[in-house]
From TrEMBL:
PPR repeats lie at residues 65-99, 132-166, 188-222, 250-280, 281-315, 413-447. This is Pentatricopeptide repeat-containing protein. Transmembrane segments: none annotated. Keywords: Repeat. InterPro entries: E_motif (IPR046848), PPR_At4g14850-like_plant (IPR046960), PPR_rpt (IPR002885), TPR-like_helical_dom_sf (IPR011990). It comes from Datura stramonium.
Length: 659
DNA sequence: GCAGACGTCA
């Protein structure tokens, strides 16, 4: 009987089938005796992601053997329910199997619970698993994953007095793992790959490479890990030389190369690999489409999209989002409609990516039609979706609606607050941003670096120097958050514009990362406002080093000299421009737009649709106060646009003056 | 027991 049941269970390919068979077995009362059958049921439920059903079965069993425990714990881990796995593990009243220990270590590694992982040593010793290769490899993997925790480091750095114990406990997981690895008598491919992968994750390609070279036999995983490490840092040169040297490649390897070249924007190279590879899959196609979308080539993207044999949810969201990001809301909408006909179930990430694509250009309609859909509205409960909706409305200029959505959300997390604070700051609603930040602290919600950036930029808008200083201090001292260049640039701007040039300069000198052009740029601008030639010279000379090709810096400096009547110096800067062959700065986005519009006006625009024209014009409307133009799709671009409208910026005037 | 490739708010 049991054999037949076992066999029947084996044929269950869907959760629905399994549930009905399970029900049948319960009714006929034929399963309570067999551990084997119960175990199979638990494992199947877990495989279908229904761990709650598995747990119900598990809880009904009075005498559980180690295999049953193992199945349940492993089921949780398989479904990324790591904390559930661990709490069940703690309840175990029988000696665990090595498989179970290995599963639990996997969970601890993903949770980055380093201390608990260390605590496992005793148990492993007691159960006699310390020479078990399976367990040893899992231990290494666990510690390797814990190696990147820096919250421990934050606490550590904040300690007034560091004693031996605290120093010892700061030995990172990576070092524990390495020690373990070095002391192993018998290492296999898995041990090697785990350690290498740990270094790759940490970004230490040198050590990763050393180990890789020392590895006696290299399997596919090892090669792929190395290649992905190089593509991650954009070193396509090394990646491709490894690729060439590889004795075997799978589809994943080829895809790594495609993804790498797409990331650095070398689409022709990516396409060449795509054409050459023996066997493509959905991922290869989707990556190529994404590459074309990012480079603005929607034609080619759509061509591949229509050509590809099967599409998944990601493919659809890439293409739909691609239209939205490139200012084609109606094409996005149309594609969304055909997506719905496919009957594919959408997920929260799908919604998120559409919202984010639309919010970049302020397209509300597409999102609203997705969300008003019966499938879409289910995701209103997802905090992340709500957050991106807030962001969307804010970016579209509808701060009231953004604020309404924010107020409606009852589980506001730090992300939610951050989004709203940034939104207020960008709209110049300084008091509201600051109030919200204070409110957040009253409710004991811990801010992160983005929250601080938001409140600092609010201070910047409002010229709140003292508040800015206080928040910056709070961020670094109380919350131990390392400021990024953006934080510094913001602070320099706040201080500089209020005339505290010395203090701003000191702040730059105290930076632990190399100051970027944004930081020195803020300094230069502030020096201009306060006519401080000496400080301007310092900032400008740094800027010339970082971005010698940016004409704006030379122009600003020469304007400062000119204001002081120092004509010799003005001439000197001019000659500098000639010396460095600095071209006119045409890099800023609105100038690109202007020239795009110019193209329509002057040339053939038959390939350009109304959407795009409308989109560009609406941007121009905002940025350049294009006079007398009303947004209307039916207007003929030639009749409404005249290139002479496009020379409104004061920067451009300076440009013309100088060259 | 190890790895990798596509869409995710501030």
């Amino acid at each position: 009987m049991n054999q037949t049941v076992y066999h029947l269970l084996h044929t269950c390919k869907t959760l629905k089938r399994l549930k009905s068979l399970h029900a049948l077995l319960l009714v006929s009362g034929s399963i309570d005796s067999s551990d084997l059958v119960l175990n199979k049921i638990i494992r199947l439920y877990s495989r279908f992601g229904a761990t709650d059903y598995a747990r119900n079965v598990f809880d009904e069993i009075t005498e559980r053997n180690p295999f049953l425990w193992n199945s349940m714990i492993h089921g949780y881990v398989e479904n990324s329910q790591h904390t559930e796995a661990f709490s069940l593990f703690r309840d175990m009243d029988v000696t665990p199997l090595n498989f179970t220990v290995s599963s639990i270590l996997k969970a601890l590694g993903r949770l980055k619970w380093l201390r608990v992982g260390e605590g496992m040593f005793g148990l492993i010793w007691k159960c006699g698993f310390c020479f078990d290769l399976l367990v040893q490899n899992s231990l290494i993997d666990c510690f390797m994953r814990c190696g990147e925790v820096d919250c421990a480091r934050r606490v550590f750095d904040g300690l007034e007095e560091k004693d031996v114990v605290s120093w010892n406990s700061m030995l990172s997981g990576l070092e524990i793992a390495r020690e373990l690895f070095d002391s192993m008598h018998e290492k296999n491919v898995v041990s090697w790959t785990s350690v290498i992968c740990g270094y790759v994750r940490k970004g230490d390609m040198v050590e990763a490479r050393n180990l890789f070279e020392a590895m006696p036999t290299k399997d596919m995983a090892a090669w792929n890990v190395m290649i992905s490490g190089y593509t991650d840092v954009g070193d396509m040169h090394t990646a491709s030389s490894l690729f060439e040297a590889m004795p075997f490649r799978d589809t994943g390897t080829w895809n790594l190369m495609i993804s790498g070249y797409c990331k650095v924007g070398e689409l022709e190279r990516a396409r060449k690999y795509f054409e050459q590879m023996p066997c493509t899959n959905v991922v290869s196609w989707t990556m190529m489409i994404d590459g074309y979308v990012k480079s603005g080539n929607l034609h080619e993207a759509r061509y591949l999209f229509d050509e590809m044999p099967e599409k998944n949810l990601i493919t659809w969201s890439t293409m739909i989002g691609g239209y939205a990001k490139n200012g084609k809301p109606s094409a996005a909408l149309e594609l969304f409609k055909s997506f719905k006909k496919q009957g594919l179930e959408l997920d929260e990430t799908f919604i998120l990516s559409i919202i984010s694509a639309c919010s970049q250009l302020g397209i509300v309609d597409t999102v609203e039609s997705v969300m008003s859909d019966d499938v879409g509205s289910r995701y209103f409960s997802d905090t992340r979706v709500v957050n991106s909706l807030i962001d969307l409305y804010a970016k579209c200029g509808n701060i009231e609606k953004a604020s309404q959505v924010f107020e409606m959300e009852d589980k506001k997390d730090f992300c939610c607050y951050s989004t709203m604070i940034v939104a207020f700051a960008n709209h110049g609603l300084v008091e509201k941003a600051v109030y919200l930040f204070e409110d957040m602290q009253r409710k004991n919600i811990e801010p992160d670096e983005v929250t601080f950036l938001g409140v600092l930029s609010a201070c910047n808008h409002g010229g709140l120097v003292n508040e800015g200083r206080r928040y910056f201090k709070q961020m670094t001292e109380e919350f131990k958050i390392q400021p990024t260049e953006k934080h510094y640039a913001c602070m320099v701007d706040i201080l500089g514009r209020s005339g505290f040039l010395e203090e701003a300069h000191e702040m730059i000198l105290s930076m632990h990362v190399a100051p970027t052009s944004a930081v020195w740029g803020a300094m230069l601008a502030a020096s201009n406002v306060h006519r401080n030639v000496q400080m301007a010279e310092i900032a400008a000379s740094e800027l010339f080093k970082i971005e010698p090709e940016n004409s704006g810096n030379y122009i600003l400096l020469s304007n400062i000299y000119a204001a002081e009547g120092r004509w010799h110096d003005v001439a000197r800067v001019r000659s500098l421009i000639r010396e460095h062959h600095v071209k006119k700065n045409r890099g800023s986005s609105w100038i690109e737009l202007a020239s795009a519009v110019h193209e329509f006006v002057m040339g053939d625009f038959s390939h350009v649709d109304a959407d795009r024209i409308c989109f560009i014009l609406s941007l121009l409307n905002e940025d350049m106060k294009l006079s007398g133009y009303t947004k209307n799709k039916d207007l003929h671009p030639i009749s409404t646009l005249n290139p002479s409208y496009l020379s409104l910026s004061s920067d451009t005037e300076m440009d013309e003056e100088l060259f």
